[in-house]
UniProtKB/TrEMBL annotation:
CDD domains: enoyl_reductase_like (cd08249). Pfam families: ADH_zinc_N (PF00107). Keywords: Membrane, Transmembrane, Transmembrane helix. This is Alcohol dehydrogenase-like C-terminal domain-containing protein. One of its GO terms (molecular function) is oxidoreductase activity, acting on NAD(P)H. The chain crosses the membrane at residues 83-100.
Length: 278
């Protein structure tokens, strides 16, 4: 797990990369298919190829930072409680659903287009709501939701997450793009702990824990919580993890532009774009 291009001496847009071991995952090479995946669609499955492994690391780090550090969820005290994951079909949402269910034993509520509901329920979602439904906030706000995680992160989805937790006494909500309480229309009669999270704070090296160009620094507590999950919990969970559907592009650096165009044109839904450099 490393940043694409903002650190001068290392980055992801190259044939060979220098990665930090603290945020890397060592897989059993014998369990991997060594041949490149063919161009086209590869359905969701366990991690069994270089492409599928490459598709999950950032989402894992993002979900772990939000759930284990910011929301401070633990299986011994939060099993059976509800969590709302807004954007269940995003790369982070797909992984967060699995962690919330399999690691923490929570009741998982998610939002996504209805075409993704069956898949998300197969991953562990107990309830899935279509975010196009005009009654979605009214329906969600009837449920006690002590934890909520916005993986889409627009001002609209952030407001929806806040409004959806209306029945909860003192919910904790978080997002991954530094949205704050100032981005919300607040109900002053409510007590809501409003937070944000970002695994990018660990992407220059977990011990350095900073992102110079945006001025944020990882706290010692963040480093501790991340290490606890990454080193002690993740190894036992990894064999159960399923990646998103993969859209495999042709090999070569020219696929960088194709991938970025697909993202800009909003043509990626419920899948990850992957390709080999050569």
């Amino acid at each position: 797990m490393l940043r694409g291009s903002s650190v001068k001496d290392r980055g992801a847009f190259s044939e060979y990369v220098v990665a930090y071991p603290e945020t890397s995952i060592k897989y059993n090479k014998e369990s991997f298919d060594q041949e490149p995946l063919p161009a086209g669609k590869t359905p969701s499955n366990n991690i069994n190829s270089f492409e599928s492994a490459a598709s999950v690391t950032l989402g894992l780090g993002t979900a772990i930072t939000a759930l284990h550090h910011v929301l401070q969820i633990r299986p011994d005290k939060d099993q059976g409680k509800s969590i709302l994951i807004w954007g269940g079909a995003t790369a982070t949402g797909i992984i967060a659903i699995q962690i919330a269910k399999r690691v923490y034993g929570m009741k998982v509520i998610t939002t996504a287009s209805s075409k993704h509901h069956a898949f998300l329920k197969s991953l562990g979602a107990d309830l899935a709501f279509d975010y196009h439904d005009k009654k979605i906030i009214n329906n969600l706000s009837q449920i006690d939701i002590p934890f909520a995680f916005d993986t889409v992160c627009t001002k609209q989805t952030w407001q929806s997450v806040y409004d959806s937790t209306a029945k909860s006494l003192e919910p904790v909500i978080t997002n991954i793009l530094f949205l704050k309480d100032s981005d919300l229309q607040l109900d002053n009669s409510r007590t809501v702990r409003i937070t944000s999270s970002s695994v990018y704070l660990l992407m220059n090296g977990i011990e350095q824990g900073n992102v110079p160009h945006i001025g944020y620094t990882a706290s010692p507590e963040m480093v501790k919580d991340f290490k606890e999950f990454w080193n002690n919990i993740l190894p036992g969970f990894l064999s159960h993890l399923k990646h998103a559907d993969l859209k495999v592009l042709g090999p070569g650096l020219e696929s960088v532009n194709e991938a970025l165009d697909l993202l800009r044109e909003n043509k990626v839904s419920g899948e990850k774009l992957v390709f080999r450099f050569k």
